[in-house]
Amino acid sequence: MKKLAFLGLDNAGKTSIITAITKKFGYEEEISKLMPTRKIARDAFKFLGVEFSRMDFGGQSQYREEYLKNPTKYISGTDLIFYTIDAQDYDRYIETIDYLDQLILYLKEEQDYVLIFLVRVIRKRNSIFLIHVKILNSSIRIKLNPNRLH
């Protein structure tokens, strides 16, 4: 089974992305009613004969601290990370880059390779308006510049 993790700060749009991907049509109303994820919401699905475990990590600070204190329990063995950044939340760019950096440091020590999609979300009336994806390889030393996220 392949492990997919959706990580980022609270209110970054992780659950909205999952909802939009899984619902395809009519997801706008459902997104407007979403509540913050507590701890980790998990589900499983099969795609092209491959089983996946999808984990939607709550992004509130108390949960992020717990994930980083016990990364083996929460993050170990992850095959793909969708790290989500709210592009309109300029005041939290440093905070989100610091969190991503801490995750990458753990992954570099723990795993030879994990694929990270850096997802930048811009919202318009509770819908996902634009998603910009950048692929990061955790085996490469990454120095993120918050000014490049604008």
Q: Would you kindly provide a written description of the structure presented here, covering whatever features stand out?
A:
There is one protein chain. The chain has 150 residues and is α/β, with parallel strands linked by helices. The chain has a single domain, classed as P-loop containing nucleotide triphosphate hydrolases (Rossmann fold), CATH 3.40.50. 31% of the residues lie in helices and 34% in strands. It contains 5 helices and 6 strands, in the order βααββααβαββ. Strands 2-3-1-4-5-6 form a 6-stranded mixed β-sheet. β4 (80-86), α5 (93-110) and β5 form a beta-alpha-beta unit. The longest helix has 18 residues, at 93-110. The radius of gyration is 15 Å and the shape is globular.
Can you give keywords for this protein?
Rossmann fold, disordered C terminus, 6-stranded mixed beta sheet, single chain, alpha/beta, 150 residues
The CATH topology comes to: Rossmann fold
Structural class: alpha/beta
Question: What's the number of structural domains?
Answer: 1
Number of helices: 5
Write down the CATH class.
Alpha Beta
Overall residue-averaged pLDDT value = 78
- Pattern of helices and strands: EHHEEHHEHEE
Q: How many angstroms separate the termini? A: 36 Å
Sheet with the most strands, sense and barrel status: 6 strands, mixed
Helix content: 25-40%
